[in-house]
Structures are given as structure tokens and as C-alpha cells.
Design goal:
By secondary structure, the chain is mainly α. The protein contains 8 helices and 2 strands. A two-stranded antiparallel sheet has the order 1-2. Helix 2 runs parallel beside helix 8 and helix 4 runs antiparallel to helix 5. The longest helix has 30 residues.
Length: 310
């Protein structure tokens, strides 16, 4: 049985209709097939990362959970794109002579997958969280870097939805934001990682350089597809799909392999399992883990515990 996703969702060739409008420049069944393949890769990776988490204590699973969440969100996004959903027709600024991106005499709309940017709005902060927690970065810097990352993604989306040359203004804002993120990952965070040991530095460097190298290719993909209408949507699907596979499942495998012998406490993460007594209770917890009120059971006042400074 062939791929019937395009026809099933009311997008017969050559028009891809949304809200009464159609895109003459859109994916074919070949592009849809590729998106289904990427969906499968992301789904398998999600189950693999979750499965690997059960080989570690519950207090050591944070990187498994974050990494699995990345591929899980990506799987849903690629399922949507494979179904030719989560997209909208936008008139192209540059009308090309190539028949695959020229449209028709009356329709030069190109389908823009906004669901891709919803994916990135969720997954790129999680990728940065994986990296910056590995480096032991302070939370204010982590949060600010994630904010800049969100600016990068959202300006890319706005630019993709703009028909005029102003789209490249948003593209420029996004590139500046990306350069800030790239500097934080490759310079600032690496200094923090270097203070935590050679194994942490090695894991961070491999994953950080891998990520930033791949992220440098995304603006090129944007310029050739949503921005410049140079390559066909099927080629766009392959370009972004390969990048996402490298930046998510492959990144996740590298990161979790590097963390196999690293205790979370070494990067400043102290996560309590529910079987462990909260540290603030110490030896003064009651039968049900309740904090002592300073009174002995015989009604006499107990001595107050000494305050420990750390």
C-alpha cells in the first residue's frame, strides 16, 4: 500500500490546501516518505534512550530523560510533516525558473512547515540544557542562553512567514542570537567544563562542537528553502532531516555514552530518590519522615542541633 498521507489530508497534487489557500510548491510523496523515515528514527531513539535510563539509578537519569524528550518531540513534529500537516502557504519572494520551485502562473505559494519551528522551540532549549548541565554552568547563564536560543528560533519562524525582503531582517536577528549561543557553548561553557575533570571536558567538547557545527548548517538550509526558494521542498526535507538526525539521536547517543561513568553530583546536580531521606531532616526525622519540633517524646525539651555551614 502506497503513501496516501497527502491525499488523505485534502492536499491533492499539485495544490496543498490550508484555510482556503494552496501551495503549488510543496512536498511530494517522496518528501512525505522521507519524513516518515525520520519519524521512525526519532521514535526508535526515544524508546532506546528511555530503555537505557532503566540501567541507571533513578537519581542518575536526568540526561536520559532530557535526551528522550528531545527525540520524542521531534518524532511528533516529523509525523505531522509526513502527513503534510502543520504547514501554511506563503508567497515566495524569489520566483525561480526551476520547475520544482517556480509554482504556476497564478500560484507561487510555498508551503512553510511552522511545526518545524514549534519542534525547535522545545527541543533546542533541551539540547542546550543537556550541554550546559554537563558543563556545570550556573543557572542564570543557562536560562539566559535558552532565552537567546528562543529568540533565534522565533525570528527564523517569523522570517519564514514573511513574503518581503524584510524576512532577511529577522534572519539577521536570528544569526546574531545564534552567534551568542555559539560563543557561550564553545568558549564560556567549556571553561566551566574544564574545571570538572578531563572526562567531563572530553564529553562536553565532543557534544558541544558537534552541536554548534551542525547548527551552523541550519541557516544555510533556511536560506536555500524558506528564505531563497532555491531548493524544492523535498530537498528541504532531506536537508533538515539529516541535520535533525545528526543533532538529536546521534547527539543523544554521544552524550549518554560520555555520561556513562559520570556521577551527576560532579556537575553540581544533587537529585534525591524517594527512597532517600531529605538531607534537611538529618537524624531528627520522625517515624513518617516528619521534622522534629525540638521536643522529646517524654515532654522534655531536646537540645537544638548544631548548624552546619557548607
Amino acid at each position: 500500500m502506497g503513501n496516501g498521507a497527502l491525499a488523505a489530508n485534502g492536499h491533492p497534487d499539485p495544490g496543498h490546501g490550508v484555510n482556503g489557500q494552496t501551495s503549488a510548491i510543496g512536498i511530494t510523496t517522496h518528501g512525505s516518505d522521507w519524513y516518515w523515515a525520520v519519524t521512525a528514527v526519532m521514535t526508535v531513539a526515544t524508546f532506546a534512550f528511555i530503555g537505557l535510563s532503566f540501567t541507571r539509578p533513578r537519581s542518575h537519569r536526568i540526561f536520559h530523560y532530557i535526551t528522550a524528550a528531545i527525540t520524542m518531540v521531534a518524532a511528533i513534529a516529523y509525523f505531522t510533516m509526513a502527513s503534510d500537516l502543520g504547514q501554511t502557504p506563503i508567497p515566495v519572494e524569489f520566483v525561480r525558473s526551476n520547475s520544482k520551485v517556480s509554482g504556476t502562473a497564478t500560484n507561487q505559494n510555498r508551503e512553510i512547515f511552522y511545526v518545524r519551528y514549534i519542534d525547535w522551540t522545545i527541543t533546542t532549549p533541551l539540547l542546550l540544557l543537556d550541554l550546559l548541565l554537563t558543563a556545570g554552568m550556573p543557572w542564570p547563564t543557562v536560562l539566559y542562553t535558552i532565552l537567546i536560543d528562543e529568540i533565534m528560533v522565533i525570528t527564523g519562524l517569523v522570517g519564514a512567514l514573511v513574503q518581503s525582503t524584510y524576512k532577511f531582517g529577522y534572519f539577521a536577528f536570528g544569526c546574531v542570537a545564534f552567534l551568542w549561543v555559539a560563543y557561550t557553548v564553545t568558549v564560556t561553557a567549556r571553561k566551566y567544563a574544564s574545571a570538572l575533570g578531563n572526562d567531563i571536558l572530553r564529553t562536553y567538547t565532543i557534544c558541544g562542537v558537534w552541536t554548534i557545527f551542525l547548527w551552523f548548517l541550519y541557516p544555510i538550509a533556511w536560506g536555500l528553502s524558506e528564505g531563497g526558494n532555491v531548493i524544492a521542498p523535498d530537498s528541504e526535507a532531506v536537508f533538515y532531516g539529516v541535520l535533525d538526525i545528526m543533532a538529536k539521536p546521534v547527539f543523544g547517543a554521544l552524550l549518554l555514552w560520555g555520561h556513562r561513568n559520570i556521577e551527576p553530583s560532579r556537575v553540581g546536580l544533587h537529585i534525591r530518590d524517594y527512597t532517600e531521606q531529605p538531607s534537611h531532616l538529618g537524624d531528627h526525622a520522625g517515624v513518617h519522615g516528619e521534622k522534629s519540633d525540638g521536643l522529646a517524646h517524654n515532654g522534655n525539651t531536646a537540645a537544638a542541633p548544631a548548624v552546619q555551614t557548607v
